[in-house]
Amino acid sequence: MKAPAPAKKSTNTRGKYVKRVHPVSFDEMKRLMRVYGPIKCRRKVKLVGAFTKDTSIKRKFYRWFPDFNERFELTPEGWFLPKFGHEYEMKYREAMRMSDQKVLVKKRCAKRCGPKSFFDTPAMNDSTVSVPL
User: Fold this and answer.
1) Quick one: which H or E segment has residue 86?
2) Which residues contact 62 (CB under 8 A, 6 or more apart)?
C-alpha cells in the first residue's frame, strides 16, 4: 500500500513584495509622516499619547507613502525630500485628501440613507400630520 502524498504548501502570498530602493530609517519615517501627513483623509482618530508599536508605524508609513521611491529622493545629508519640492508635495497630498473625503462622504451617505429618497419619510406622507397654512 502506498503512503498518501504530502499536502502541497500554498503558493498564495499575502501581498507582493516591493523592493525598496532606499531603506528609510524609523526616525525619518516619523519625520516624513509628521511633515507631510497621509494621502487619504483620516477615518478614525486615535488618542494622543496612546502607545503604538514600531511595526504598526512602519505599515502606516508605507500606506501613507505608497509611491515613496517615485516621489522622494535621498539627499547627501541622509534626509528624504520630495523630488518636485515641498510645496508641490503638500498641495498634492491636500488634493488627494479632499478627493478621498468626497468619496468617503458619498459612501457614508449611501450607507445611511440607502436607496430611499429623503422625501419618502413616514412623517411627510402620514395623514395625521397637520400642515400649518
Assistant:
1) helix 86-113
2) 68
Chain centroid to Cα 39, Å, comes to 7
Give 8-42 as a 3 state SS string: CCCCCCCCCCCCCCCCCCHHHHHHHHHHHCCCCCC
pLDDT at 51: 73
Length of the chain: 133
* Cα–Cα distance for residue pair 99/104, rounded to 1 Å: 9
Q: Give pLDDT tens digits for 40-81.
A: 887 776 666 667 788 888 999 999 999 999 999 999 998 999
11-28 as b/e: b if 16+ CB within 10 A: eeeeeeeeeeeeebeeeb
Q: For 45, which DSSP code?
A: P
- Torsion angle of C-alpha atoms 105, 109, 111, 116, degrees rounded to 10: -160
What distance in Å separates the CA atoms of residue 11 and residue 9, rounded to the nearest whole number? 6
